[in-house]
């Protein structure tokens, strides 16, 4: 799995965790049903936001919402589950395919790993072309023209080729912003709330900016070591400026969501307001939660409560796209990505599955769980809770 929104189940709570997993499984199954078993490898955390947004706006029983019982799956320990289905999941699948295709072509162009070999590169291009076609068909089935995504990818290549020191960073992020704005806005039409298209387009634009920024920040050291192109390095943008832009994007998304009308916006708010802020902290190495702190270390000491978690040293032996996909399939079949601690298939960084227990929960999580009466079922304290929680 990949994506910038990787929520902790303690922050989500039992109810929202169940909903989030329903959308994750729904996206995976929509990819399998409509585009074949192999297409499931493009399942990602950010893509499922399309499904979440559609259902959050839809009336109960509408085309954009719905649940069905899925059969046993290795990722769920061979248990059945209620999963999301409908037009939202199908749109999420189409968008995920087109963007994954773009990522494959980008890796081929850079000659990453095995893709530097011509036979492997040709095979990867065929896979990417198949995903493009499948995404186009899937998008067309729900009234979404994926050409806007393909155009954004094509323009991205040209912009990066011309970018240099002094080029505004937002010039580089613009194609991604345009693509995500279109996808977010279309969820309003699927849900029968066209008046939401404007605010959601703005939220999508800022989400695309944030995704591009955080990817650049997290990859900067590895890109420097491998000689790969990086937006921050190429434009000479300092990390302080990147952090300012990221914080502004999170704030802008919060404001845009306030202008949209939802049937049930709790999960949207938790993911696109709270979890995005946590993603920014994680990317820039800012302590936001004490998960993983040593239980016997004194407060403030390295590894102790209140101290930042030591950053994991960058790995120099990143896997290529195809090798990472092969490892992903192995992890999926052993349930480690859902219920265990695992090594990221591509970056080799240590990750925790969604169902991994987080015993050393941060004060914010504990506070929100204790003040649910005044903050709502999702433990959100944004609207003025007097229990002392400011998250």
Q: Summary?
A:
With 391 residues, this protein is mainly alpha-helical. The chain has helices spanning 9-35, 48-57, 87-110, 118-141, 147-162, 169-190, 197-226, 231-235, 239-258, 266-283, 321-333, 336-339, 363-370, 372-375, and strands spanning 67-73, 79-84, 341-343, 350-352.
Write the layout of secondary structure elements.
Layout: H1 9-35, H2 48-57, E1 67-73, E2 79-84, H3 87-110, H4 118-141, H5 147-162, H6 169-190, H7 197-226, H8 231-235, H9 239-258, H10 266-283, H11 321-333, H12 336-339, E3 341-343, E4 350-352, H13 363-370, H14 372-375
Antiparallel strand pairs: 1-2, 3-4
Number of strands: 4
Task: Quote the average pLDDT.
Answer: 78
Largest sheet: 2 strands, antiparallel
Distance between the termini: 27 Å
Strands of the widest sheet, in order across it, are 1-2
SSE series: HHEEHHHHHHHHHHEEHH
* Helix percent band: 55-70%
Keywords for this entry:
globular, 4 strands, single chain, 391 residues, disordered C terminus, two-stranded antiparallel ribbon, 58% helix, mainly alpha
Describe what this molecule looks like in 3D.
With 391 residues, this protein is mainly alpha-helical. The protein is 58% helix and 5% strand. The chain contains 14 helices and four strands. Strand 3 and strand 4 form a beta hairpin. Helix 1 crosses helix 3, helix 5 runs antiparallel to helix 6 and helix 7 runs parallel beside helix 10.
């Amino acid at each position: 799995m990949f994506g910038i929104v990787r929520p902790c189940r303690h922050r989500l709570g039992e109810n929202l965790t169940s909903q989030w997993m329903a959308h994750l499984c729904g996206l995976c199954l929509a990819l399998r049903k409509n585009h074949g078993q192999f297409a499931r490898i493009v399942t990602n955390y950010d893509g499922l936001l399309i499904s979440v947004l559609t259902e959050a706006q839809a009336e109960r029983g509408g085309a954009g919402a719905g649940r069905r019982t899925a059969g046993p799956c290795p990722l769920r320990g061979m248990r059945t589950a209620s999963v999301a289905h409908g037009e939202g999941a199908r749109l999420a699948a189409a968008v995920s395919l087109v963007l994954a295709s773009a990522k494959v072509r980008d890796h081929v162009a850079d000659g990453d790993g095995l893709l530097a070999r011509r036979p492997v590169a040709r095979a990867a291009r065929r896979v990417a072309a198949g995903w493009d076609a499948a995404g186009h068909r899937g998008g067309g089935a729900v009234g979404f023209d994926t050409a806007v995504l393909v155009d954004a990818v094509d323009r991205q290549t040209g912009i990066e080729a011309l970018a240099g020191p002094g080029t505004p960073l937002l010039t580089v992020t613009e194609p991604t912003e345009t693509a995500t704005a279109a996808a977010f806005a279309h969820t309003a039409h699927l849900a029968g709330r066209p008046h939401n298209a404007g605010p959601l387009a703005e939220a999508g634009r800022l989400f695309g900016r944030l995704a591009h920024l955080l990817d650049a920040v997290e990859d900067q050291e590895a890109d420097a070591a491998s000689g790969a192109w990086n937006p921050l390095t190429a434009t000479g943008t300092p990390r302080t400026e990147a952090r300012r832009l990221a914080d502004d994007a999170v704030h802008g998304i919060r404001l845009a969501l306030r202008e949209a009308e939802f049937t049930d916006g709790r999960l949207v708010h938790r993911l696109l307001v709270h979890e995005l802020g946590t993603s920014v902290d994680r990317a820039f190495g800012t302590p936001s939660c004490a998960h993983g702190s040593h239980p016997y270390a004194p407060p403030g000491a390295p590894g102790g409560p209140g101290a930042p978690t030591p950053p994991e040293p960058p790995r120099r032996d990143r896997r290529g796209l195809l090798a990472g996909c092969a490892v992903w399939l192995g992890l999926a079949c052993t349930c480690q990505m859902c219920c265990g601690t695992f090594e990221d298939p591509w970056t080799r960084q240590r990750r925790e599955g969604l169902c991994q227990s987080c015993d050393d929960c941060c004060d914010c999580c504990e506070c929100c769980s204790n003040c649910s009466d005044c903050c709502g079922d999702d433990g959100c304290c944004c609207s003025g809770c007097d229990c002392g929680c400011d998250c």
